[in-house]
Structure formats: C-alpha cells, structure tokens
Write a sequence for this structure.
C-alpha cells in the first residue's frame, strides 16, 4: 500500500482544485484535507484487502520492494533537497 497511497491521495486531493478551484477560506481547505485523508484511508483498506488475496511471486515481491525504495528516495529528495526539473505544478518561466 505504500506505493499506492501517494497515488490515491494525489487523485483525491486534486479533485476539488480541478472542479472547484481555490478554496475561499483556509477553514474550507482544512476540512477538505481531512475528508481526503479519511477517504484515502478507506481506499487503502479496501485495496489492501484485495491485495491480500493475490499470491505474489518472488519476482513480483522484488519489483514491489524496489519500487517502494525508489518511492521513498524520491519523496525524501523532492521534499528536503530540491524539486524535480519538470515539476508539473510550477509556474512556467515564460511569463
């Protein structure tokens, strides 16, 4: 689930900005963030229950562990060091 939670949070979090736009108050954004957190946890529990039924091969386990380690490395580098050069949400320099 460590590989899927960021994807689920990303998808759920950006629903409101895509449909509604910027929240008028910080209170609305805080409430929305809490709702997204709860929904992400519910999705994670449902997905994890489904994954428990799947028999994973040795190769599949190696791939999952490798992707988990790469994910952790990327999250730490992009959080504490620098953003990626092709960040999707950075304002372009052409303005």
């Amino acid at each position: 689930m460590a590989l899927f939670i960021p994807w689920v949070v990303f998808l759920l979090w950006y629903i409101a900005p895509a449909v509604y736009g910027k929240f008028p108050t910080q209170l609305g954004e805080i409430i929305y963030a809490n709702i997204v957190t709860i929904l992400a946890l519910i999705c994670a529990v449902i997905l994890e229950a489904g994954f428990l039924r799947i028999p994973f091969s040795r190769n599949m386990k190696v791939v999952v562990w490798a992707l988990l380690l790469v994910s952790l490395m990327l999250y730490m580098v992009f959080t504490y060091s620098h953003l990626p050069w092709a960040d999707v949400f950075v304002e372009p320099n052409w303005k």
